[in-house]
Amino acid sequence: MAKAVRIHEPGGPEKLVYEDVDVGDPGPEEIRIKQEFCGLNYIDVYHRTGLYPLPPLPTAIGLEAAGIVSAVGSDVSEFKVGDRVAYAAPPLGAYASERLIPRHRVVKLPDSISLEQAAGMMLQGMTVEYLIRRTYEVQPGDTVLFQAAAGGVGLIACQWLKQIGATVIGTAGSPEKAELAKAHGCDHVILYREEDVAARVREITDGAGVPVVYDGVGAATVEGSLDSLKPRGLFVTFGNASGPIENFNLVTLSAKGSLFLTRPTLMTYTASREDMVSSSTALFDAVAKGLKIEVNQRYALADAAQAHRDLEARKTTGSTIFVV
């Protein structure tokens, strides 16, 4: 019987239950995947706690995995049994040894991408793609600020931004994480626990500030992010690792220089099949050009609760996967 990590009620990591599930046969528009690796992402915490909406409980969580097609529905023509595939998309249920998923949410993997790599790169990599190519299209010569540059998204972003030709200012919580960010292309790293982020950004940019800040941290970094922007700059807040931004006064944007603010999500930017294929293809191309996907933590799927504890304690760097 297949195994899955499910929640029966929202809450802490202890609410993650490793249990038997019945997968069944795919419907006409579905495929069944025997999953070998699943990705761990901070959005999984938001689902586990109930911060983000959940389907009827109990439900498996997780949005990213890679594996082998084990069955296809009657109307599926673009996949066949044995294909290597990956996804980073709803519906929830990636924390499983085998699952059903709509065919339009899945992509085939190039031969050059391993299943382990794919499980550690799809969600984070496509997040970077839409952030730096579509939310704000970074140009050669731009200087950008990326909060939490040593995280999974941050390490991919630093490399991809350097491919574009940008100057990258990143933040990190320790000297060790700062060195990791630098090794992945970050030009300037600010230790946010010891330094005034906005003051250092102004120093690095000769007082000008940056045209865009990418911030997946949330409540703890909002002021520093806003104060790092040049007039009419864009604040891209795409995550809540330190908690959601609440009671935000929009007048702040005018007071700090007619700033723009957006709260994008990967699910919106890859809602159509066309956008998802385009995003994943751009990611595969960036990897082919030298972008490295580093899986720095591996857990057994049964140990999902510990993985969540480590993620929330900021003990992880780069990508984290579950071995099914």
Annotation keywords:
324 residues, Rossmann fold, single chain, 6-stranded parallel sheet, Quinone Oxidoreductase, Chain A, domain 1, alpha/beta, 7-stranded mixed sheet, 11 helices
Would you write up a description of this structure?
With 324 residues, the protein is an alpha/beta fold. The chain has 2 domains: 2-121 and 293-323, Alpha-Beta Complex (Quinone Oxidoreductase, Chain A, domain 1), CATH 3.90.180.10; 125-267, Rossmann fold (3-Layer(aba) Sandwich), CATH 3.40.50. Helix content is 30%, strand content 27%. The protein has helices spanning 42-49, 115-119, 122-135, 152-164, 175-183, 197-204, 222-226, 251-255, 266-269, 273-288, 304-312, and strands spanning 2-7, 16-21, 30-40, 59-60, 64-72, 84-88, 98-102, 107-108, 143-146, 167-172, 188-191, 210-215, 229-237, 260-262, 295-300, 319-323. Helix 3 crosses helix 4 (152-164) and helix 3 (122-135) packs across helix 10. The model has no long low-confidence stretch (mean pLDDT 96).
Number of strands: 16
What structural category arises from helix and sheet content? alpha/beta
Give the number of domains: 2
User: Regions with pLDDT < 50 over 5+ consecutive residues?
Assistant: none
Helix content: 25-40%
Mind telling me the CATH class of the largest domain?
A: Alpha Beta
Task: List the total number of helices.
Answer: 11
> Which value, in Å, is the CA radius of gyration?
20 Å
Q: What name does CATH use for the topology of the largest domain?
A: Quinone Oxidoreductase, Chain A, domain 1
Beta-strand percentage range: 25-35%
